[in-house]
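Comment thread on ticket #2218

A.B. wrote:
> Attaching the input chain for the structure job we discussed in standup.
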Amino acid sequence: MKKLIVNADDLGASPAVNRAIMAGAAAGRVTAVSLMVNMPFAEEAAAEIRARCPGLSVALHFCLTSGPAVLPPRSISRLVDDRGCFKHGFLGLWRELASKQSGAEFLAQAKAEFVAQLERMDRFAEKHSLRFDHLDSHQHIHVLPGLLDMLTREADRRGLVLRIPRERFSNCDRVVRRLASWLPGGVVKKMILDRHLRRAEQRVGYFGILDTGKVGLDAFRVIARAIRNDRSVREVFELNIHPSLSENEVAEASRDAKDNASGFSQADLAFYRSPWREREFELVTGEEFSGILAENGITLASFADVTT
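C.D. wrote:
> Ran it. Output below, let me know if you need it in another format.
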């Protein structure tokens, strides 16, 4: 029987995101979460995990593209603006890391920030008794040159599962359904991801690139069929979702977060305010979710099923 980890990203980004993810986890539908330790609502989320869902699988959601850095601006000036907020998106990071002139310096600063975020994650894990058992990153930036090797070594050293976002589209239905909204940026990003993940060992199958931010009921039905029909040797798959509450609550929470110097870009705000986030919340708390799993012979799992 195939197993599915339902992993909710961006925990700690805002109160609305936190509430939605924790409701999904309390209902037993969200089985793993990725914590953005650089965000102002991260420790609040960690405390809620301990209170409501002890034993929930938790990842460090390594971030270099959204919100404030953990380190002071003077020590990572190539990564952040004058406020100490990250100033590059995915493609900007890729260009900086690939630069022959400044790539080495940029990578050194990125590594320093990774260590700082990892240390903060360790403090949260100890203080709130979190099950820190996997690693991933915001916008999959960990697959970029230099960063993938760094996170792979750390995952191996600690016995953590590292997300490898190499997604098989599986059937034409998935591609056709999302093609118009996915072009051209999604294609470029997938090409970059696949290029840098060619030799990476993938222990857990992955779904979450083609349907990023738009995993409603229709998408989930197609993904479940793709998992059922998968002919690889993998038995465990991860579905990557980004649930939140209503658009109004997300907008209000985003303003609160901005006041707390979280440094959301306009692209971030558009993503956090998307009505699709509420649909993803409705998916994992709705009545049809369990039926779709049962129809396709899939049981829910966590990263504990991979690490033990």
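A.B. wrote:
> Thanks. Noting for the ticket: Confidence is low (pLDDT under 50) at residues 257-261.
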